[in-house]
Amino acid sequence: DGDTIEVLHNTHPERVCLSGIDCPEHGQAFGARAKQALSMLVFGRDVILQTHGQAKYGRTIADVLLSDGTNVNHELVNDG
């Protein structure tokens, strides 16, 4: 989805929900576009997580920051 990423943490995959973000789900209007926008920001890049607890299904809730300080959560909102 456009509001969830998977990161490697200590060589283990971890699902992360972006805090304060609710994007269309897969199959909904603009769902694929939301996923693409998020992927373009984070795919293959190192990120820093500012965690805010756990969501249902054990996903971590976090603000996602790029190494240059860019807040991915804010970028997605700014980009619409």
Unreliable stretches covering 5 or more consecutive residues: none
Strand content: 35-45%
- Separate helix tally: 2
Separation, N- and C-terminal Cα atoms: 15 Å
Rg value: 12 Å
Number of strands: 4
The SS-based structural class is: alpha+beta
The succession of helices and strands, N to C, reads EEHEEH
Order of the strands making up the biggest sheet: 1-2-4-3
Report the helical percentage: 25-40%
* Morphology: globular
Write down the overall mean pLDDT: 92
Largest sheet: 4 strands, mixed
Explain this structure to me?
25% of the residues lie in helices and 35% in strands. With 80 residues, it is α+β, with helices and mostly antiparallel strands. It has a four-stranded mixed beta sheet with strand order 1-2-4-3. A hairpin with a 2-residue loop joins strand 1 and strand 2. The two termini are 15 Å apart.
Question: What labels describe this entry?
Answer:
alpha+beta
Short description:
The chain is of the alpha+beta class and 80 residues long. The protein has helices at residues 31-42, 72-79, and strands at residues 4-9, 12-18, 47-54, 60-66.
Secondary structure topology:
Elements: E1 4-9, E2 12-18, H1 31-42, E3 47-54, E4 60-66, H2 72-79
Parallel strand pairs: 2-4
Antiparallel strand pairs: 1-2, 3-4
